[in-house]
Specification:
Elements: H1 4-20, H2 25-47, H3 85-104, H4 108-132, H5 134-137, H6 140-147, E1 154-158, H7 166-172, E2 176-178, H8 186-190, H9 202-209, E3 215-221, H10 225-231, E4 236-242, E5 245-249, E6 261-263, E7 277-278, H11 292-296, H12 300-303
Length: 304
Amino acid sequence: MPALPALALLAGKQCAALWESGGRWPGILLGAIGALFGAGLIVIAATVSSGGTNGFLGLKDNPDLYAYYLGHLFDLTSESLRALRLPLLLAGLGLGITLPLHHLMKSPEARAALLALGMVILFVAADMSFLIFAPRLTSRPLAEEISRRWQASSMIVIDGEYEEGCSIAFYTGRTVGLHHVPSSNLEYGSHYADAPPLFVDDERLKQLWSTSDLRLFLVTYEAKQEQLEALITQPKYLLARYGDKILLSNLPDAPLSESSAPLAGSRLDFTPPAGYRQICLSRIPKRTLPTAFTYASLTWKSVF
């Protein structure tokens, strides 16, 4: 992945040299590739049927791959493409129109303008896709909910792999525990004698949850609700929900306010009272959301 910008510069230099020498086949090839990719994206956007999805946008969970660039790409399913119909259509039009027209234009200025227009359209489509899948890519809104409730006796636990909520630690600046068996990159260091006890097993989690002088924040997913309900029978207080991510606590806000309410049973259709923090995309600051430009600069993984 880090080599892609350098490869793009080399490819652009070679294409410029061929165009300056008067060769026509680079323009024909570029126009053909744009027409094929554009037509393919438009066909996919047109054929994806509408309907309901299972889980958050029909995405799959692959926490073992989240440590890699583009690891979330494997979360996509045919169901999740329904949410991407507009970005797919926009990207298809951008590639399918601007690149073939680029070959037909004779003026260098017109060609450069068409390429720039195609890039802008593609960036806009990519940005729209990031906004749609932002709850899967970042946990910053949940981290902000934790930060505004943080006390000296608080603790954060991620229900799963570290990669499933790594931005919680980044944005809160706090050490997080992991309700998971030692695994992934953190497993090696966990075997040292002086390593902090980051991994929390079932018994330890139940003990922490029943501690009255400890405010425990648990970041979990809707798909893990039934398993969590079978493990912890004590009351759970729903603080915020972002996509399929859920922020729970063993203690309510003091005093108990409308922003937290007990989550009874394994009901996923819990109807919160007025004032409950249902985090929506329209309420997130613009700086919170990923953009195509941060992706293009290969820095988005460190942010989310």
